[in-house]
Amino acid sequence: MYKYSLFLFLLTLNFACENSFKTTEKQFAHLDKIPDFEFVNQEGETVTLANFENKFYVADFFFTHCPSICVPMAQNMKTVYETFIDEDEVAFLSHTIDPARDTIGRLKYYADKLGVSAPKWQFVRADKEYTYNMAHTYYKVAAMENEDLPGGYDHSGHFILVDKNRKVLAMYNGTKEDETQALIKHIKYLLKQQ
Amino acid sequence: MNNEKASKNTRNIMFAFIVIIVLFALAAVFKNISIEPGKEAYLNNCAQCHGKNGEGLAELIPPISNADWVANNHEQLACIIVNGIKGEIVVNGVTYNESMEGNDYLTLVETANIINYINKHWYPENGFVTPEKVGTILNKCK
Q: Rounded to 5 degrees, what are φ and ψ at A173?
């Protein structure tokens, strides 16, 4: 009886997880594909969508001098990064929205000190306007649905999960530990599904 | 006779009510007292970067908890909290070099509360600082 109820419990849990994921997937299904882009990473290398071919990737927008939400975001993203450190099909892309101060050297320093590296986790920069337009593309739907996001949606602290077809699958509040755990679960689910 | 009994009953009920109200009031007062005054100030002003448990962030932001630097320089905590810090600092053998903005809007009481929160949780041997003591320390900051 005990075993049976445990099994039932796990089954419900599993079902609940898959179910909630499918809902988010549907929510963003009508979004356009992420258009091709060109940034420069912390190693001075050019990064385009080709770098993410056959990969799921998690994108965010940040800046290294950010005194507030970027620290928990970096902490949480690092947790996801470490979870999938040996999984070639998962990558990370952090765009700086402060290219004036976040030079290539500064991004390299930041990545090194955070203890992470390219190509698994790319810290990239481009013109401010270019990066903001990119942020708009990623956040289009979320921004329309959450107009009251603090600090504006360009720097909303969200992690954006993009699939192998360049489609935004879901967004997570990158400052929250429980949403970070949800992101990890969803990536595991995606990897298992294929 | 019946009337007398009825009024006695009313009195008893009134008394019970008063006891309950007093108990609730006491509970509220004790609940307030047991809240740590420095906790909110720490969470609002420090935890965003240094973490809820003072753990810091990799080699970018130094820890506040279990940090040899804090243990050895606890008198300077007030200066750093209020004035910020720039340049290299070595904590537990790791060199950190991010600048921290000062929190000069904090009152002496708030600053003392934050230091006492830090001391209580991670450096109990450092004891308690008063707002007056914080004022004296701040006057001597480099």
A: -75, 110
> Are residues A190 and A163 in contact, defined by beta-carbon separation less than 8 angstroms?
yes
The per-residue pLDDT for range A93-127, each reduced to its tens digit, is 999 999 999 999 999 999 999 999 999 999 999 99
Smallest Cα distance from B24 to chain A, Å = 35
pLDDT, tens digit, 9 for 90 and up, residues B20-55: 888 877 776 665 555 688 999 999 999 989 999 999
Residue B99 Cα, gap to closest chain A Cα (Å): 9
In a mutagenesis test of the B interface, which of A65, A66, A71 is the best target, namely the one with the most B β-carbons within 10 Å? A71
Whole-model pTM: value is 0.77
Q: What are the angstrom distances between the C-alpha of A59 and each of A29, A56, A89, A183?
A: 18, 10, 14, 12
E-strand stretches of A87-149: 90-96, 121-125
Hey, is the C-beta of A119 within 8 angstroms of any chain B C-beta?
Answer: no
